[in-house]
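Consortium newsletter contribution from the modelling node. Members have asked for a concrete example of what our holo predictions look like. Here is one, prepared for the aspartic acid complex that several groups have been discussing at recent meetings.
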Amino acid sequence: MKKKKRIPLYLTIILGMVAGLLLGILAVNLNFGEIVTNWVKPWGVIFIRMLKLIAVPLVFVSIVVGISSLGSIQKLGTLGVKTVGLYFLSMVGSAAVGILLVNTIHPGNTFPEEKRAYYMEQFQESMEEKSSLADGLKQDSPLQFIVDMVPENIISSGADNSNMLQIIFFAILLAAAIVMIKGEKTAPFTNLIESLHEILLKVIGIIMQFAPIGVLALLAGLVVDFAADTDLFTALGLYFITVVLGLTATVMIFYPVLLKVFVKKVKFFRFLKAIAPAQMVAFSTSSSAATLPVTLKQNIDELGVSEDISNFVLPVGTTINMDGTACYQAIAAVFIAQVFGVDLSIFEQIAIVMTAILAAIGSPGIPGGSIVMLVIVLSSAGIPVEGLALIIGIDRPLDMLRTVVNITGDSAVNYIVGKTENKLDTSKTF
Ligand code: ASP
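And here is the predicted structure:
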């Protein structure tokens, strides 16, 4: 019997996205937006919930499986240093791309005075809310972020998806102990965890069957929600274009160079095609944490990076590596400075790159996660925090795009680590 040829997943997701956009546009023009909000959007919310549902167990199980199969603590040390080093390098590169572009295009210089006053009034409330959240963060000791990584109680960490670093900390500790003990005593536990890992990967497969409908519903709902704000696009057009160019240059110029340097023989478009479904889920959900299950699956199945490497590198990357966010924060900070006529010297701009990186590391992988951290970048550079009001209204579409870059950066580093550790199935993308 002839087997029916299946349409590849990324194509069905693209179809879902196009259908969602069309449905949203139709709903806005034919006035049935409310129906979309009440009857279509909830399916998108269910899709995101399902992804989030497995995020905590998946991060825990993946890291334990990944590290315990490394075999030695030294290996974990080298892998850890290499991974964090590459993540830092990729964030420096993308923030530098952002700074270069915003200084070339100068989107803030032509921003009309009356528009500035108008937006500051319109978005004052949400700006104040974000900056008071950031004030809370600023009062902490500079080492607070390390303190926050260490959980007091693993059950309560596991009850909140935003405590991913605490879960990672606990998983690394546990896996390190397993590696030190080795042998029969730990075998029942590792067998159980490995079996759980297999099961969770299957669960991701099941959830992904639902992805085309999920992205359709999410995008239709977003178009309807955003329709009222279309005039924002015209006023902030140049800023919008600068961020889009920065993110595009990060993916299409910086990553190919990075991969060329470390991986040498690489077919970049095959790399992109392998992770395309994860990029589309990132675009639709605006959350790199919710996308992690898909990022893992694509990296292992399609990109060919071994499970033990991906299981360690990707969960860590999802939480600390945010190239799109770093690029965006650098552009947003300088844009606001330009609008307010704040002159920034080259050293101040370098300081912005560094704080943007730290802020990106601290941003949670959730929709709009980096806005609160942007307040810290602005205030440490002496740029008026009120300027946040200018860009909040237009943030969602930019958030969708920078989330795509965030997970692409994680995958690029995973690919490099996989290749340099001889853990890459080169038949997939070479
Ligand atoms: N939404 C982004 C992410 O999940 C974070 C941000 O830049 O706001 O990766």
